[in-house]
Design goal:
With 681 residues, this protein is mainly α. Helices cover 73% and strands 0% of the residues. The N and C termini lie far apart (60 Å). The chain binds urea (URE). Belongs to the sodium:solute symporter (SSF) (TC 2.A.21) family.
Length: 681
């Protein structure tokens, strides 16, 4: 590589400095939560599902943060450089409907498994330990490949930008996250996620607008004319243009991305956990809001930064002029760092390093907390020590966070030395991560899916998907190697087979040996109570909300009670503990009839919205534009202007709105702090 954009001191300084800063923020947040909000991360219910009391704004920001990987900004800009304006749209459409589907499944889970902690817990409840084992494996494979390839992509980016050794980057990036996640648990990561999202979105909008208005770009018109003047010919695009939606490679990439991303949401218990953690009336609005605003990130950043790379690469303003980017540099995501360094200087490139850190750490924190709850609940509490106290489970969770973080660093280093690129894992991952999706959804949605179907269909789906992928790679590539196994079409057909065939297998097997499940069985999953210590007894959802107001000072009461009186959404009963065995007639739902009616209403909204989202983002938006058409200047102007407005809407939704939504809690904290400080004086 010709020039290093920043030096190693920038790399080490930012990664270590920000890790320490976020550890301090988490320590402060844990103290504040415990002291003024009566939320104790030393209880499992709080550590894993934040007492199921997180509101719409904070849930939206946390889901957005976990879902906004460096892919959508830095890598999307690089792929837009490769294939033009079509790519960000296919990227955006490959990000949205999965979150809309999760909204639907999350609200169904609130109804059917109101006290679940992980998605695997209800697999075990319904199908027993063999199915549970298979789904633990599928979840871990999905999580390890998703998170590992993200750490590697981030580390390669940091190495490309600063010259830091890639192994040091693979270790340091997850190190700080592991420490603060182990200390704070899920609710604490909601808070760091919020800070990450706010900083990342502000930086992204600043980068886009500063690049667009830079004198060497010249606004939207300048960008359009310069891209045309660069006269790059893109193989597979209509007339080789960067300014057409008819791009074969972008479409195939977008389709593979859809399957890969579906697995990253549904087979990652973190997205389920965030829905378990949020209030009954918050799940659907929060997830659906995210599904709308997430479109902005690839659309705005990808289009402006990716095309700007093409616009200036052959001019003297280019940082590495007269060298053009190599394919390896593009695949490592270095388009955005080069564009920012060329047009905005070293300060902006340092800002990008901060953004990369923010985006990766929120992905990693969500991944480690998900795996730690699989280890502590799905493995330890299920098979090693069923009578484990709350404190013991928490301890195992903490070690799970640390162990998984260390493992992920090692896994990313292994991928680096095995020569696997982000490109290869993009095509490989959906094939191994998709087979469990349909059987998992049917566990919650179809009472007739049988135990044999749940166990066999993912295995058969995996075999079918891998068979199609390798068979077609051999047929069309002439051999089986790392090159032929990342050709687009075999990867796409393999992913389609892995995703859809388990649905077919499941239905066939279920109909051959039919049986029916009684949904009331799921109500036997209950809260983790600490019988060893009455003082740490876990509050019910109702208790937890009231606790926000009741603690320490009678003056604090009434904040959320007004809200509860308005919506009446919380069950009138306190923690119900249903018998683990015996007649199902003795089992009662923990929510009131009114709350259940409300959940059903949200479920219907979520189902309608999911269908609408799928129709708009996958069909009505991109498909009519797939034709012999090159964007005119006026169309391009409108296109980019809407993308920028959408980005501002995203900021309002996940940065400004959570503050408004959480104003009562913020007020409670401020009043607590000022009262305490006042009494000290
Ligand atoms: N958000 C993702 N998976 O790019």
């Amino acid at each position: 590589m010709a020039e290093v954009l920043l030096n190693q001191a920038h790399g080490y300084g930012i990664i270590i400095g920000l890790s320490v800063l976020f550890c301090l923020i988490i320590l402060a947040a844990v103290r504040v939560q415990k002291r003024y909000l009566s939320e104790d991360s030393e209880q499992s219910e709080m550590f894993m599902v934040a007492n199921r009391s997180v509101g719409t704004g904070l849930t939206a920001s946390a889901v957005f943060s976990s879902w906004m990987w460096i892919n959508e900004s830095v890598i999307c800009a690089a792929y837009t450089y490769k294939w033009g304006v079509a790519l960000p749209i296919w990227w955006a459409s490959g990000l949205s409907f999965q979150i809309a589907l999760m909204a639907l499944l999350g609200i169904v889970a609130k109804l059917r498994v109101p006290y679940a902690h992980t998605s695997l817990e209800f697999i075990r409840m319904r199908y027993g330990k063999y199915a549970h084992g298979i789904f633990i494996l599928l979840n871990l494979v999905n999580n390890i490949f998703g998170c590992g390839s993200m750490i590697l992509a981030g580390a390669q980016l940091v190495t490309g930008m600063t010259g830091m050794h890639v192994v040091a980057a693979c270790i340091l990036i997850p190190a700080g996250v592991v420490i603060y996640t182990a200390v704070g648990g899920l609710k604490a990561t909601f808070i760091t996620d919020y800070i990450h999202t706010a900083i990342a979105l502000i930086l992204l909008i600043y980068f886009s607008l500063s690049v667009l208005t830079n004198e060497h770009i010249g606004g939207i018109s300048g960008l359009y004319h310069k891209v045309k003047a660069a006269d790059d010919y893109i193989d597979g695009n209509y007339q080789g243009s960067l300014l057409t939606m008819k791009s074969r490679h972008a479409v195939f990439f977008g389709l593979v991305l859809k399957f890969g991303n579906l697995a990253l949401v549904l087979m990652d218990t973190a997205f389920w956990q965030k829905s378990f953690a949020s209030e009954v009336e918050s799940v659907v609005p929060a997830y659906d809001l995210v599904s709308v605003v997430i479109l902005a990130v690839p659309w705005c950043t990808g289009t402006i930064i990716g095309l700007s790379g093409r616009a200036i690469e052959k001019t003297p303003i280019w940082f590495d002029y007269p060298n053009l980017l190599t394919e390896k540099q593009v695949n490592s995501g270095l388009v955005m760092p080069y564009v920012l360094r060329s047009l905005l200087g070293q300060g902006a490139t340092t800002g990008l390093l901060v953004l990369v850190f923010m985006a990766i750490t929120s992905t990693v924190s969500s991944s480690v907390i998900a795996v730690s709850s699989i280890i502590s609940l799905d493995f330890y509490r299920s098979y090693i020590n069923p009578k484990a106290s709350d404190r013991k489970i928490l301890k195992v969770s903490h070690w799970g966070v640390v162990g998984h973080g260390a493992f992920m660093a090692g896994f990313a280093i292994m991928l680096q030395y095995a020569g696997a690129t982000n490109n290869w894992t993009t095509y490989f991952r959906p094939i191994i991560a998709c087979p469990g999706i349909f059987p998992l959804m049917l566990t919650l949605l179809w009472s007739r899916q049988t135990k044999a179907a749940a166990i066999l269909s993912p295995i058969l789906g995996l075999i079918s998907g891998v068979g199609v992928w390798l068979g077609l790679s051999y047929l069309w590539g002439g051999a089986l190697n790392i090159q032929t196994t990342q050709i687009q079409l075999p990867g796409l057909y393999g992913a389609i087979t892995s995703f859809f065939s388990p649905a077919l297998y499941s239905v066939i097997i279920s109909l051959i040996w039919p049986s029916q499940f009684d949904w009331r069985e799921f109500l036997r999953i209950d809260l983790i109570e600490d019988s060893s210590s009455p003082s740490t007894s876990v509050p019910s959802p109702q208790d937890s909300k009231e606790d926000v107001n009741k603690i320490s000072d009678p003056a604090f009461t009434g904040v959320n009670e007004k809200h509860e009186a308005k919506t009446g959404l919380v069950s009138p009963v306190s923690s119900i503990s249903n018998p683990r065995s015996g007649s199902l007639d003795d089992v009662t739902h923990p929510f009131s009839d009114q709350t259940i009616r409300h959940i059903k209403k949200w479920r219907n909204y979520a189902a309608c919205y999911f269908v609408l989202n799928l129709l708009v983002t996958v069909v009505l938006w991109p498909v009519p534009l797939y034709r012999d058409y090159i964007f005119t200047l006026s169309f391009f102007k409108g296109w980019v202007a809407v993308a920028i407005l959408w980005h501002f809407a995203a900021m309002m939704a996940v940065v400004v709105y959570p503050i408004w939504d959480g104003r009562h809690v913020i007020d409670t904290v401020f009043r607590g702090v000022s009262k305490e400080w006042g009494s000290k004086k």
